[in-house]
Amino acid sequence: MKFKDIRALATVQGPARTPSEKLSRRCYSVEDMRRMAAKRLPGSIFDYIEGGGEDEVSLRRNRSSFDDWSFLPKWGSVENLDLSSTLLGGPVSMPLTLAPTGGTRLFHPEGESAVARAAFEAGVPYGLAHLSTTPMEQVSAAAPGLRRWFNIEPMADKVELQALLDRAVKAGYEALLVNVDCRAIGHRERDYRNGFTAPPSIKLKTVVEGALRPRWALGFLANDAIAFPNLDAHVPEGELSSTPDMWRTLLAGSYEPTDWDDIRDLRARWNGPIILKGVVNPNDAAIAAELGINAIQVSNHGGRQLDHMASPLDVLPDIVDRTAGRIDIIVDGGIRRGSDVVKAIALGADACSIGRPYLYGLAAAGQAGVAHVLKMFAADMIRTMMLLGVSTIQELRAEGRELIRHSSEASFRSAFPEAAEPHLPFAELKGAR
Ligand SMILES: Cc1cc2nc3c(=O)[nH]c(=O)nc-3n(C[C@H](O)[C@H](O)[C@H](O)COP(=O)(O)O)c2cc1C
């Protein structure tokens, strides 16, 4: 065989012309994007994204719980496959949101504005962190049509709280995403070991890391210093560090223990939708529904706060039962593929939310990286639903429990096929016999 014959057999690809074309050829999963981000970022900053609290049991469980649920596809026609749905009464192109993440400009100089533009183009909402490194108004200007939510801590100082809420209304934020899992800051040992502070203090380690990651270092040095402009009223400039004192420092003068009364107070002050983020206890979910809260984000903060927590996916069926359609349910933690989203919807969630996956995209390739992650999620969901035999999100939610089984149910059922109760954990069923 001559060279020209071989050439005729091979398809020769020209060079990729756009960042998104380049990503389409190199990045087939969130894990691929994660590896690209690891190559771009200094180790301590990558670890800040990656890490969890204490022994990182919550973090690992978030991921492993998805493996415990298996699909039971049904045969039949799938027509006009459609991922669109509604959340808080408004449209979403797919049941996915971008979760709030503090310090985002540490990962890419365009930070939150790039994330907002990518979210808008993909038709999904974005929750901007209280600790965002871009002012909330600038994020609004970057993507005026974006469905944007503002993330806050419940604050005891009602004067400061009202000023912040007024600012959020003026800047066009549709909903409040209120944290109920940050009474203390998680013990993130990776950060302590790395001496991680934001902005990174200039230690020999940081200089060496920066020299090894020149693209990140140039972007970092050429742009505005990292600051937390939504907190201007609270925090002395440059005084943020990931230590247990951080929260007190951040909300100096305003942090005091808060409780359900503060949630009632927020409900009275804010006319738009409120989402409580960090609910995992089914009782709390039921209380939220009674208080007129519009949605909960079932979350253990990506395993970054309390360790040894239940995984959001595992508590989802109980939460769905307790709230009985009175409240929208968003789930986050460990969601890395469209098939994970499909599992959560099948178990009764209205949507899922992602944190680290879009940060990997941002760190690897800015806005194009976030857009690529969202594109992969959409493509995954379409393929998974097609293989599962469902055409719409509504159908998936309605029929989901027939299309998915927990591993404990499967093993129990094959051992005791006469058992009628479908959803109890294996241990409980065994005990009941
Ligand atoms: C780097 C980083 C910073 C975060 N900052 C915040 C924050 O400021 N407020 C908040 O409510 N959640 C924060 N989170 C948690 C996310 O909103 C979300 O709950 C979590 O990332 C979901 O898990 P996943 O990363 O496995 O998708 C942060 C997560 C990461 C990875």
Task: Count every beta strand, where a strand is a DSSP E run of 2 or more residues.
Answer: 14
What characteristic shape results from the CA principal axes? globular
Please report the distance between the alpha carbons of the first and last residues.
71 Å
User: Could you list the spans in which at least 5 consecutive residues all have pLDDT below 50?
Assistant: 424-433
Q: How many strands, which pairing sense, and closed or not: the largest β-sheet?
A: 8 strands, parallel
CATH fold-level topology of the largest domain: TIM Barrel
User: What count of helical segments does DSSP give?
Assistant: 20
Based on the structure given, which CATH architecture of the largest domain is correct? Alpha-Beta Barrel
Mean pLDDT: 88
Record the strand order, biggest sheet. Answer: 4-13-12-11-10-7-6-5
Distinct compounds present: flavin mononucleotide
Helix-strand category: alpha/beta
Helix content: 40-55%
Rounded Rg: 23 Å
CATH class of the largest domain: Alpha Beta
What is the strand content? 5-15%
Q: CATH superfamily of the largest domain, called what?
A: Aldolase class I
| Assembly classification | single chain
Instruction: Estimate nothing, just give the exact number of structural domains.
Output: 2
